[in-house]
Amino acid sequence: MAVEVVENNLLIHELQLGEQLGECVHSKRRSDFSLMLAMLTDNVKEHSQFFVPETVEKSKETTDGILRKEFNLPDNAPLALKENEQLNHFDQSNLVQENRMTDLHLLNALRPKALAFRDNVKHIAYDVLTNTSPYCQKVRLQEQQETSQSETLTSTLNKRLPFNAKGWLNNVQASIVKSLLVTA
Predict the structure, then answer these.
(1) Rg of the chain's alpha carbons, rounded to an integer?
(2) Residues 135-140: what's their mean pLDDT?
(3) pLDDT(153) > 60
(4) pLDDT tens digits, one per residue of 10-66
(5) What does the pLDDT read at residue 97?
(6) Three-class HEC string of the chain
(7) CA-to-CA distance for 33 and 74, rounded, in angstroms?
(8) How far apart, in whole angstroms, are the C-alpha atoms of residue 68 and residue 62?
(9) Phi and psi dihedrals of 16, rounded to 5?
(10) CB-based burial, 52-81: b 16+ in 10 Å, e otherwise
(11) Which in 87, 140, 149, 178 has the greatest CB count within 10 A?
């Protein structure tokens, strides 16, 4: 039996024995195989199968766009129309009338249509609003008027007013002159 001498004279795991364990099995040398296993450490946690090299993976940012690009998927169906010109894309009546439903499904898969016409959480459809009590309709009308008034008020408040530099300088000069008269 030719057991290689290890640097620290301790056999910790079977990798230190190299191919000797396999040779003992193939040549049916049971005593050498048993001796080599007995010389290994008793602590099973020290065996090589428990020392898997740790790999640090870079955390990949997976977003909806990245996954769609990787799997060649079309864009998400938008929730609502962004422009009124997009209404033309909804005209699918010709395909339905000609009973070309597979074409219709294919078009919707390639270029998904918006799911709704409006992206307004506070919008209530007219037929739903007319089915409510008169009080509810009045409150809704008041809310709409208040929002439109506040929008016009903020638009006028946020408007940039013209600057009269000459008048401003005259006011600054007059205040300086008055302050000099008061302190004197």
Answers:
(1) 41
(2) 81
(3) no
(4) 677 777 777 887 888 888 888 988 888 888 777 777 766 666 667 777 777 888 888
(5) 83
(6) CCCCCCCCCCECCHHHHCCHHHHHHHCCCHHHHHHHHHHECCCHHHCHHHCCCCCCCCCCCCCHHHHHHHCCCCCCCCCECCCHHHHHHHCCHHHHHCCCHHHHHHHHHHCCCCCECCCCCCCCCHHHHCCCCHHHHHHHHHHHHHHHHHHHHHHHHCCCCCCCHHHHHHHHHHHHHHHHHHHC
(7) 62
(8) 10
(9) -70, -20
(10) eeeeeeeeeeeeeeeeeeeeeeeeeeeeeb
(11) 140
Alpha-carbon gap, residue 8 to 4, rounded angstroms: 12
Phi-psi category of residue 124: left, alpha or beta, with phi > 0 → left and psi -120 to 50 → alpha: beta
pLDDT the model gives residue 155: 58
Q: Of 58, 53, 51, 43, which Cα lies nearest the Cα of 10? A: 43
Residue type, 51: F
| CA gap 97, 160 in Å, rounded | 55
User: Would the pLDDT of 154 be above 70?
Assistant: no
Tell me how far apart the alpha carbons of residues 75 and 144 are, in angstroms, rounded to a whole number. 34
